[in-house]
Write the structure tokens for this entry.
Amino acid sequence: MAGATATSYTDRVLRSDEIAEFSPEVIEEMKSHLAKYPADRTRSALIPLLFVVQRERGGWLDNPGINFLAQFLNLEVTDVWETATFYSMFNLRPVGRHHIQICKTLSCRIMGEPEITEHICSKLGIRPGETTEDGKFTVTMVECLGSCGTAPMMQIGFDYHEDLTVEKVDKILDSCQ
Ligand code: FES
């Protein structure tokens, strides 16, 4: 089949039936998210629950975690994958402790993103899509993060870093433990 690879998302969905297990505390946390939505709209809890599963599975969404959510919300596994693959805030492969997401869209691009990206990658010794050998940093290029007025910008974890310069980037990276 043209274009299919052993690691395609379709293959991953079709091949895995393992279901993750979570502690009673985490299950309670998930139920508290669920309780915010009408009983016939449980699907609306998918995004906050994906965040919980991502946190609990070591920073990324693996098949067992996705399968758990499908079962928990009584959804098809593909329904969960549809949402998980749409947003760049969900990681579909392991990432480093500090996940650097650099905006590559127009405003950031014309305001200096290429220089910022080159600087970060050469400082860390990796290319976009890669993780440093010590597992500390992952660099990912993403589409607009909605902070165009402060371009160029990047997100590390949940924090936005804006109006970036090479000097500012150095300080930010040096402060990452
Ligand atoms: S273009 Fe970079 S935040 Fe919008």
